Amino acid sequence: MTVAQALVKFLDNQYVSFDGVESKFVEGIFTIFGHGIAVGLGQALDENPGSLKVFQGRNEQGMCHAAIAYAKQLNRRGIIACTSSVGPGAANMVTAAATATVNNIPLLLFPSDTFASRQPDPVLQQLENPGDLSITTNDAFKPVCRYWDRVTRPEQLMSAVINAMRVLTDPTQTGAVCVSLPQDVQGESFDFPDYFFAKRTHRITRPVAVEEELEAVAEVIAGAKHPLVIVGGGVKYSEAGQVMEDFCAEFSIPFSETQAGKSACISSHSMCLGGIGVTGTLAANKIALKADVVVAVGTRLGDFATSSKWQFQNPDVKIVTINNSRYHAEKMDAVTAVGDAKVTIEALGAKLRGKGYKSAYTNEVKDAKAAWDTEMKRLAGYVYGENFEPTVKNRDPRTVPQFVELTGSSLTQAAAICAARESIGKNDNIITAGGSLPSDLQRIWTTDKRGGYHAEYGYSCMGYEVAATLGVKLAQPESDVWAFVGDGSFQMLHSEIMTIVQEGLKVNILVFDNCGFGCINNLQMNNGVSSLATEFRRRDKNGKLLGDLIPVDYAKIAEGYGLKSYTARTLDELKSVIADAKRQPGPVLIDLKIIPKTMTDGYESWWNICVVEQGGSEDVRKAAQATMDGRKKARLY
Q: Residue 345 — very low, low, confident or very high, per pLDDT cuts 50/70/90?
């Protein structure tokens, strides 16, 4: 059979086993067929796809985002492979490959490639490097993939895809995998052995940390009066949420959450403080400032997600890490326990139980949560009206009144999220990615559905949200799904709406329209920079992008795709349209007119950013000095 036919047959026989439960690993293949793939792998899928489903993408990056979301929602135990033509189709997938690798999510890519024989060179879409004829567009995948291969002979397919599966199913190594398929090799024939096509079950195991590491970690925690747990994505993928909750309740240890870890544990738990770090809650950040031991479970300790270099201001603080990856475990001079989150937490609990440990907290956690609840109630009622003040610094006094006049809206971002939280189903999934929405949702959103909060924030990749809605709905069709996407991110990439329509899926897309890249506009203004190419404005008579705001009717865009659409300008309208959207049988889009500068902002955390060391306005110099002062309180590594 041909290489392409063998590949399809192999993929259809891959399974994973986790906690004794076996499931099919490869659901199907996303594709945008081009000349380099249609009559190779495309022919094989047309002839005999087995049980693999073929999904039609609209943008190569978008279809890969959908595949990432699918795997992420299934806790990395199911994938949809992606294939494209050589050239721009392949290059479009590079961003998604990086997104998958940074987030440790399995993504399997089969880009077509130029001819291994080189006889037709330069073939259509071929990138030629005069100094190295072996280089093609697909070499761009190397730095953003965990495994990369090019099949230049038919028999190489076997070792290539077996190693691809090894990486994809390894929790410590998983990320993007690229197996490049030259156009001529796809159609070449080889007598593949029967055992290559035998059913393969890849076991995802739970290694527990070794005794010495467990004892060292237990000793550190046992000496803590005010410890704090950080729940990272590793807790979610290990399905250790219940174990984590029981651990924290037994030893009276509060827990905070990263973007990836949020919804691993239930928000209503008495020890849950919500998000930590730059996107964190007042409750979590206050407790973190004084914590004497920080127990980081399944997290990379990213600066935005945890403010790891600054947030822990206790001069005697000790860091403990529990992580499957030794690389991540050994950050921050931590005392480490390398192993699966669930079984390692269970083993650590037994150690602490034997020591009779309990934290010294009295009312601190309860008081911190109560103060945050008061702030949440304030945010829920925050609307435009008399004595209105933006929550974020606004150095351009035109922005808010212009937007209100243009749209007639009184809707703030913070209050809109609060209203949505109370209006959607308790068992629904929500999705978000780069911009200000993840910050607000990490703080404001609460859910008791495990896995109900789906954020891509490791790579902060704008354009992820709409495509991810498709992937999450394919992964869990029984649950309703809501995408929270900013207008800037929606404009970047929303093409997979057409695939959603094609598949007949019921999804809900909430576009937060504030006429700009609001998050970065905030960053500019908070650091003394004027609004420069971050608001959606016309060019003025002086040649600058500081003219009138540009209105966009996102509801009409949705109608063009065949979606039921709505526009909301007030809290009452938003609640009403969400109620109606839930009754619709097909996909819907809600265009929320959100007044700029009304997101949440800062709760006793800090972020290390670029500073201008010379020149600039007085405001720029003041902001630079504030950052330099913050650096003095931060750890250097």
A: very high
pLDDT of 612 higher than 90:
no
Strand, coil or helix: 364: helix
Confidence of residue 390 (pLDDT cuts 50, 70, 90): confident
Q: Dmax over Cα atoms in the chain, in whole Å?
A: 78
Is the pLDDT at 396 greater than 80? The verdict is: no
* Distance in angstroms (rounded) separating the CA atoms of residues 36 and 24: 28
Burial of 493 (0-12, 13-18, 19+ CB in 10 A): buried
Task: Give residue 615's pLDDT.
Answer: 79
**How far apart, in Å, are the Cα atoms of 488 and each of 384, 512, 518, 554?**
22, 9, 8, 12
**Six token digits for residue 499:** 């695939």
Gap between the Cα atoms of 142 and 214, Å rounded: 36
Mean pLDDT in the chain? 96
Per residue in 320-335, pLDDT (tens digit) is 999 999 999 999 999 9
Q: Contact, 273 vs 255, CB < 8 A?
A: yes
255 φ/ψ angles, rounded to the nearest 5 degrees: -130, 145
Distance between the two ends of the chain, CA-based, in angstroms?
54
Cα 250 from Cα 264, distance rounded (Å): 18
**Contact 186/3 with Cβ under 8 angstroms?**
yes
Specify the length of the chain in residues: 637
3-state secondary structure of 12: coil
Q: For residues 344 and 209, is the Cβ–Cβ distance under 8 A?
A: yes
- In terms of Cα–Cα distance, which of 620, 594, 598 is closest to 609? 620
In tens, the pLDDT along 188-216 reads 999 999 999 999 999 999 999 999 999 99
The CA-atom distances, in angstroms, between 621 and each of 179, 259, 393, 614 are 49, 32, 17, 8
User: How many other CB atoms are there within 10 angstroms of residue 106's CB atom?
Assistant: 32
The Cβ-side half-sphere exposure at 142, using a 13 Å CA radius, reads: 8
Percent pLDDT > 70 in the chain is 100
Q: What is the pLDDT of residues 275-330, one digit of tens each?
A: 999 999 999 999 999 999 999 999 999 988 899 999 999 999 999 999 999 999 99
Give the Cα separation of 21 and 371 in Å (integer): 43
CA dist., res. 94 & res. 142, Å (int): 9
Residue-wise DSSP of 245-306: HHHHHHHT--EEE-TTTTTSS-TTSTTEEEE-GGG--HHHHHHHHH-SEEEEES----HHHH
Alpha-carbon distance of 205 to 189, in angstroms, equals 37
CB atoms within 10 A of CB 582: 16
Contacts of residue 260, Cβ cutoff 8 Å, sequence gap at least 6: 103, 232, 233, 236, 299, 305, 455, 457, 458
Residue 529 has a pLDDT of 85
Q: Rounded to 5 degrees, what angle do the CA atoms 205, 209, 214 make?
A: 155
